[in-house]
Amino acid sequence: MPRAYFSPATFRFLGALARNNKREWFQAHKADYERDVRDPFIELITDMQAPLAKISSHYRADPRKNGGSLFRIYRDTRFSGDKEPYKPWASARFYHERRHEIPAPSFYIHLQPGDCFIGGGMWRPEADPLKRIRAFLADNPAAWKRATQSKAFKDHFEFWGESLTRPPRGFDADHELIDDLKRKDFAAGEAFDEKLACSSELLPYMVASYKRIAPLIDYLCASQELDF
Fold first, then answer.
1. DSSP per-residue codes, the chain
2. What is the pTM of this model?
């Protein structure tokens, strides 16, 4: 039976962390983080394993506390102008089994007060995988349109990220997918509210969303010569 994982306490903690983003505060409230955010997210990831395997046998819902699907709450501040030590959100990605070998698209979920969303794709791919995506798009427009212009996709998702102002070098400015060829990011998603996040409908909603976005993930995998 579907169950609720998160509660209003999850969002109260994240909101309080945004207002008190200091190591001393976090250490004093670490037990709250583990009880209200980390542990229920691990349970959600665990329960996502079976339905995700039905969507793609090559994707993983990894419930390890470190190095798995759950992103760390700690920020890497070494190369950032923002020195706040913690992320005031909780998020997870469900990744391809070969992600350490080849850049691959992921399924994603993000929980933050006033900003919950779900989706997938490739965010800021580096030059080589980006070039592969664009070349694949140019040569396979029909499959891209089936993946991203269906009613199921357009009724739920919008593309995120930035685009070039001019066509990328080497691509026809009159190509039927020129707006997609200009993309720097190939990720899409939809927002949902905290009420859904705290309900027993969250896992079924995630499964339905990932099924709808799977054709995009499949297409991006094909662009990188990965199985889906």
1. -------HHHHHHHHHHHH--SHHHHHHTHHHHIIIIIHHHHHHHHHHHHHHHHH-TTEE----SSSSSBPPSB---TT-S---SB-SSEEEEEEETTTTTS---EEEEEE-TT-EEEEEEESS--HHHHHHHHHHHHH-HHHHHHHHSSHHHHTT-EEES-B-SSPPTTS-TT-TTHHHHTBS-EEEEEEE-HHHHTSTTHHHHHHHHHHHHHHHHHHHHHHTT---
2. 0.94
